[in-house]
């Protein structure tokens, strides 16, 4: 099934010069979404991990159903101020600004092996911040999984040394 042909490009969103890859055409089609989760699951079946970590908000879209499909727990990583209990945080840069991510302190115990799941690898800033959060709590990053990689932004460079899996390269 050709997932790539169902992606929509939105030029100059959210600001001039950004070519936004819209995944909603894939999400709204049950067969395409199911196939996406199947391909993502197949890409990481050989990895040893305890939990799936998904960053707000599109990491939730792929991380939660993938956790369900693989029989794993899911831990949300949210933007600053959105989680109710004690957190740790990491600042990061993206292609059009900066932000802060947080995770509950009790989400990751020392020795926990985590798989980070997100929709898109662009500059790698969000993904690296997720790695830092897991490692700050004593966990290990077993790997990172992305539906799409924009390889021209070279986000993979920031993730050198990590096991990174990609479903679609653009």
Keyword list:
7-stranded mixed beta sheet; two-stranded antiparallel ribbon; 36% strand; single chain; 9 strands; alpha/beta; Rossmann fold; 170 residues
Low-confidence stretches: none
How large is the radius of gyration?
15 Å
The number of helices is 4
Strand order of the largest sheet: 5-6-4-3-7-8-9
| Strand percentage | 35-45%
The CATH class, by name, is Alpha Beta
Order of helices and strands: EEHHEHEEEEHEE
Structural class: alpha/beta
The rough form would be described as globular
Walkthrough of the structure:
This protein has 170 residues and is an alpha/beta fold. The protein has one domain: Rossmann fold (3-Layer(aba) Sandwich). Helices cover 26% and strands 36% of the residues. The protein is built from four helices and nine strands. It has helices spanning 24-28, 30-44, 58-70, 125-136, and strands at residues 8-11, 19-22, 51-55, 73-79, 87-94, 97-104, 113-121, 140-149, 164-169. The protein has a seven-stranded mixed β-sheet with strand order 5-6-4-3-7-8-9, with helices on both faces. Helix 4 links the parallel strand 7 (113-121) and strand 8. Helix 2 (30-44) crosses helix 3.
Q: Topology of this protein?
A:
Blueprint: E1 8-11, E2 19-22, H1 24-28, H2 30-44, E3 51-55, H3 58-70, E4 73-79, E5 87-94, E6 97-104, E7 113-121, H4 125-136, E8 140-149, E9 164-169
Parallel strand pairs: 3-4, 3-7, 7-8, 8-9
Antiparallel strand pairs: 1-2, 4-6, 5-6
Helix pairs in contact: 2-3
